[in-house]
Amino acid sequence: MDALKESSLRPEIALQPFLPPESRLSMEPCRLDRLVERKRAIAPVGTNLLFRRLFILVGTAALTSAGGYEMYGVVNVGGVTVLEGMLLAFFLALLAWVAFSFMSALVGFFLLLIRRKGGLAIEADGPLPNLSSRTAMLLPTYNEDPHHLMARLRAMYESVAVTGHGARFDWFLLSDTTDPDTWVHEEVAFIALRRVCGADHLYYRHRYDNTARKSGNIAEWVRRFGAAYDHMIVLDADSLMEGDTIVRLVHAMEMHPGAALIQTQPVIVNASSLFSRLQQFAGRIYGPLIATGNAWWHGPESNYWGHNAIIRVRAFAEDAALPELRGRRPFGGHILSHDFVEAALMRRAGWAIYMAPELGGSFEEVPPSMLDFASRDRRWCQGNLQHIAVLPVRGLRWVSRLHLLTGIGAYVTAPMWLVFLILGLLISLQANFIRPEYFPKGFSLFPTWPQQDPVLAAWVFAATMGLLIVPKMLAYLVLISRGDQRGSFGGPVRVFCGILFETLLAALVAPSMMILQSAAVAEILLGRDAGWQVQRRSGGEIARQEIYRKLATPTLWGLVMGLSAGAVSLPLLLWMSPVIAGLLLAIPLGLLTSRRSSAAGLFATPEDRRSPPVVLRANELMASGPVGVTGALRQLRDDAELRKWHLASLPYEPHSKLGRIDVALATARAKIEQCEMFDDAMTWLDKSEIRAVLNDATTLQTVLKLRQPDSIG
To answer: What is the C-alpha to C-alpha distance for residues 394 and 236, in angstroms, rounded to an integer?
Structure first.
């Protein structure tokens, strides 16, 4: 042990057992006001792409104008009041949002119907191409289940190895884990993975100071190791990709030297609850329509979704250094939703950003319940609202600014819908309880009867709903036009019934999500930071008490709206019944949709009926059962091999460079000095102190040398 202690602390040991030699690139974060515009020439947008964008924007404007004109006819009864003017303004903004999505879906429908590609053309069939570049597969993790993590990593590693191109890829597990037991469990599982797969191309790095979260994790890898690689494929903890897809992505980057990023369209798999099955089914049916339409008019100015995408390392290092926003959280500091901004910065520098929606073999998972979805959305909401500060940055392409605005709108529209409903209620209450002016100012022989046109109002409502529902029917028509997909979904009748039930359940869930997202926006505006919470994956269960507590607010909103509408008239109550019913049923829906279900039923997708090889392999490995692991310190004490690798993998930077880490470490050392037994340290040290000890070789070995119970005597 003494020899190990001395060797593990020597700074001349350059090659750590879990990492390759460093190959550094410069990538320093900068403040927003110090962003420097790059001089790389941006290829002019062709006439064809200009026409595509004009078609989308003109179509959106036409639909919005037509709807706004009709809505003006609904509210203009004896003049437009202040409340009615506000209602009209919110309606126009929300209708423009819906119409914009509708136009992309309409384009996607025609492209898929005639079997034309919308994005970057990548050959998905045929023999695999040869590769000449090196690619790093990056899997960032934060307090995830190590067993599941290694299962997914191994499934992808094996899938790439089958292609015959395994030597072109290195795999990095980039851990930001803060829980000490999970940290050591990761090391145990990773050693086991290396033992099975070999150590030539598998690497593990734990980052103690997880500044800037995932974006900082990736940037730190780029600075230390990026120069050795041409490309990197960034994954999420729940990502899976087929080996063929990975090889074809790399080849596409080799064929397009001006491309900085190619984004795949991940397909949702492994849904285990009704809520996640709804998302899986909807994403599989409607997702290709929207993605193909978007890729058609995005061209080389598409977007980045943060995972399941390939990135040119040099472009990322030179041009995607994220700004640190001024001010305090939640609007200041490091950007949470980094992907949109990174894509915008690389595009600003002249690099192309592509989407490849037709390339299959890319998968992800989704939160299993409404509350888990809302929890993830809370973090994304804060990150997207931070983009407000990025919008004015000099040199951004207008399409990139539109992507940022779209991300902002995805969350701002929730409180806008809520305000729209409240304004409608206030106008109805005002008309019911406040005496109207039958004679306008000035002379008039006849009274003005303030009566709205219910038929026109119904038409406006139906047209708006049509913009939301028609894309679902268009997606259905595309699906039944393709014989292979009809069978894989279980036939046209089953799919149609699935779409009907999905639409009904989504309509009931939507009001509660509106309230939860509105609350998230309000919290951010009030200065509350989302923090960095561990995401519950599909295997996690949610407590009933949590559902009751968190969904009580939507239920209360439904009660207030129902009483207000009922106080005006029965027709108004019936008119608002879909929203009110969804809110009043928030808790039952939360309980129902969060239940685990092994049967896909109406919401079965092709991946349920025939799992892709990489998904099947990952699920087999996850089902094999995790390796039993005790507490972090006890595991290190009892496992000599693990102890050796852990000590040799620790960083050599002095703790004085790590800021607040000193506090936990100093406290831990003070407590350890008072300990005589190993079990005393286990009892007295909290998790933050154990984590600090795990990162300091000297202190860790001091703890491990404490007497054991069986050594007394």
So the answer is: 31
Element (H, E) at 492: helix 492-525
Q: Which residues pair with 309 in a beta bridge?
A: 234, 263
Instruction: Report the predicted TM-score, pTM, of the whole model to 2 decimal places.
Output: 0.91
Burial class (CB in 10 A: 0-12, 13-18, 19+), 69: exposed
What is the CA angle 215-217-220, rounded to 5?
A: 105
Give the pLDDT band (50/70/90) at residue 627.
low
Question: Could you check whether the bond before residue 357 is cis, i.e. omega within 30 degrees of 0?
Answer: no
Query: Which residues, 6+ apart, have CB-to-CB distance to 479 below 8 Å?
Result: 285, 485, 486, 489, 492, 495
Q: Residue 354 belongs to what H/E stretch?
A: strand 352-356
Alpha helices in 321-453 (DSSP H): 338-348, 370-385, 398-433
Residue 619 and residue 612: Cα distance in Å, rounded?
11
Burial tier of 454 (Cβ tally within 10 Å: 0-12, 13-18, 19+): exposed
For the beta carbon of residue 693, count every other beta carbon within 10 angstroms. 28
Give the ranges where 163-203 is alpha helix by DSSP (H): 180-197
629 and 191 Cβ atoms separated by less than 8 Å: no
Q: What is the C-alpha to C-alpha distance for residues 294 and 706, in angstroms, rounded to an integer?
A: 62
The helix/strand/coil state of 363 is strand
Q: Which residues lie below 8 Å from residue 93, measured CB to CB, with a gap of 6+?
A: 416
Distances (CA, A) of 475 to 52, 120, 296, 488, 605: 21, 21, 17, 15, 14
- The rounded distance, in Å, linking the Cα atoms of 26 and 37 is 17
- For residue 170, what are its two tokens? 């290195």
Residue 424 near residue 87, CB atoms below 8 Å: yes
* Token couple for 602: 């109406």
Burial class of residue 543 (count of CB atoms within 10 Å of its CB; 0-12, 13-18, 19+): exposed
- What are phi and psi for residue 206, nearest 5 degrees? -100, 130
Q: How far apart are CA 233 and CA 250, in angstroms?
A: 9
Q: Find, among 140, 214, 210, the residue nearest to 171 by Cα.
A: 140
Strand pairing category for 352-356 and 309-312: unpaired
- The per-residue pLDDT of the chain, averaged, comes to 87
Spatial strand order of the sheet with 240-241 comes to 240-241, 362-364, 267-268
Output the six-digit token pair for 619.
């699920």
Backbone angles phi, psi at 305, to 5 degrees: -105, 5
Quick one: which of 704, 684, 584 has its CA closest to 634?
A: 704
* Gap between the Cα atoms of 433 and 426, Å rounded: 10
Read off the DSSP letter of residue 301: B
| Separation between Cα atoms, residue 251 and residue 130, nearest integer Å | 8
CA distance 322 to 338: 8
pLDDT digits (tens, 9 = 90+) for 1-13: 333 333 333 333 3
Question: For 662-673, b where at least 16 C-beta lie within 10 A, e where not — what string?
Answer: eebbeebbebbe
Q: Give the range among 87-96, 149-158, 332-341 with minimum mean pLDDT.
A: 332-341
What is the per-residue pLDDT for 125?
A: 83
Give me the numbers of helices (H) and strands (E) for the chain, helices first please: 28, 12
Q: What is the DSSP letter of 114?
A: T
- Pairwise CA distance, residues 411 & 520, whole Å: 9
Angstrom distances, CA of residue 448 to CA of 436, 452, 552: 10, 12, 44
Mean pLDDT of 518-524: 94
Give residue-wise pLDDT tens across range 124-144.
888 999 999 999 999 999 999
**Cα-based distances in Å from 243 to 163, 165, 249, 354, 493:** 6, 9, 10, 20, 34
Q: What is the largest CA-CA distance in the chain?
A: 111
Which residues sit opposite 141 in a β-bridge?
Answer: 175
